[in-house]
Amino acid sequence: MELATIARPYAEALFRVARKEDLSRWAALVTELAAIGANSDIQGMAANPRLDKRQIVDVLLSLVKSEGNQELKNFVEVLVENDRVNILPEIGQQFRELKNASEGAADATVISAFPMADDQLADLLKTLEKHFLRKLNVTAISVDNSLIGGVIVTVGDEVMDLSVRAKLQRMQEKLVS
In this structure, are residues 42 and 60 in contact, taking their beta carbons and an 8 Å threshold? Predict the structure, then answer.
């Protein structure tokens, strides 16, 4: 069974709890848990049959720096009991998608030909938000000098290639055809 299918009910349950409480706080907790669960040492520990499930729960909870509550403890206990620590990264991703959907937002990655100053990024985001008709949360910014100039923006499965390299390629295709 695909990890996304297994993770979905966990992410949805967490999201229901988070909406009743503090969505931003829960988003931070889930992001933290996802990072912890992505660690190969943690996955190995969670899969170790010699460790008691209570020990695994205690270790996981001790690694969470943000202040948790009883719901977080219950969630971690259920994950450990069902041997699902390995899906924490996928739960984190799906939780983020649910949060974004509820806020009318989306995650975006930006690849730029040159490093961008904060004000340049803010201006770019304003323009992109008008195009995509929603608030964008930049999750990653990287530099690729081969773009010559401009940016490539990915939002969900949509890619906007506004680079000089792409414009040159389109011009070349028109000239050749």
Answer: yes
Alpha helices in the chain (DSSP H): 3-20, 23-38, 40-46, 53-63, 70-81, 88-103, 118-132, 164-176
pLDDT for res 1:
65
Tokens of 7: 């993770």
Q: How far apart are the first and last CA of the chain?
A: 46
Cβ contact 130:101 at 8 Å = no
150: nearest Cα among 108, 107, 111 = 111
Tokens standing for residue 133: 């008709």
Task: List, for residues 28-80, the tens digit of each pLDDT value.
Answer: 999 999 999 999 999 999 999 999 999 999 999 999 988 778 999 999 999 99
Q: Is 53 left (phi over 0), alpha (psi -120 to 50) or beta?
A: alpha
Whole-prediction pTM value? 0.79
Structure tokens at 79: 């994950």
